């Protein structure tokens, strides 16, 4: 019996609840962005979860303590049961986010989502002008539709939250992008430099900006931010820098199996949206309840805690801040997900990052060299 008054030691490996649930409703999408984070072989995914199966996932997640819910894809709007799922989620008490390209959205759908209780909508753009936007999206009508839907979202009383993925083909447009957002009356603008997973990793050489481009873009954002402050504008600019130009890795997902739970369209449960590329068996909500998936499955326990860490992470005094970085990035860059994230300058594989930076300094390829994310191209990546 413990008679001391010292607090009971907390087991650092004991997982808390999955506070953030990402429901990837479908891999279907009308756009073909070459930086999509969906798996390369998405076109061979088995049948999507039914409405009832999704409702069961939402209920189980909420019972375990999940509070934030994202609906994403692919394009979640292609699911006809989206209003029903939003209503169920809201009734369960989730804070609900819809992450959409805006393609397939209508004024009537925005109204239906508001009626169902949706809390938040984020619309993604590819560029500040229709030519580049539509060329990157692989769709001739995308830009006009996005403009109309960004306005419809705001008119329905939501904050206007816009997301731009930044890469070497649109990084010169930073000022135009911010001006467009200001003109539209955006409330929050995420300028997220491309992260290299899925299709973006495959296209990295054609997408990654040079350091010079990046520094200039960041300066432009800082200047624009000051001007917004000076004029009393409420628009907030969030600039997300790319891992590949950092010297320390990000605390990916805030730690493996720590907060984030992703359910893929076919019911595969993942600790992050990219993890199905790893050589790990992940459980499926069709076979197992969410509680046992989260707490007991080998897939979710694989990189919890720090006993899995090799050197230099194991003895690093920063390991509690970054958890060894990103497992998917370690796998993509070294072929072994156990390795330290090569973004870290202490990693023995940091040369892979330096080589990517060097390639970005000398890259000349245009958009036509990119592999677009569509079912035909996906079939090229089918395994076996
Ligand atoms: Fe999978 Fe970082 S994206 S662990």
TrEMBL record:
- Recorded metabolic or biological pathway in which this protein acts: Cofactor biosynthesis; pyrroloquinoline quinone biosynthesis
Q: Which Gene3D superfamilies match?
A: Aldolase class I (3.20.20.70)
Task: Name the domain of life.
Answer: Bacteria
Q: What EC number(s) would the UniProt record show?
A: 1.21.98.4
Q: How does it assemble?
A: Interacts with PqqD. The interaction is necessary for activity of PqqE.
Family the UniProt entry places it in: Belongs to the radical SAM superfamily. PqqE family.
From the Swiss-Prot or TrEMBL record, give the protein name. PqqA peptide cyclase
What organism, scientifically named, is this protein from? Marinobacter metalliresistant
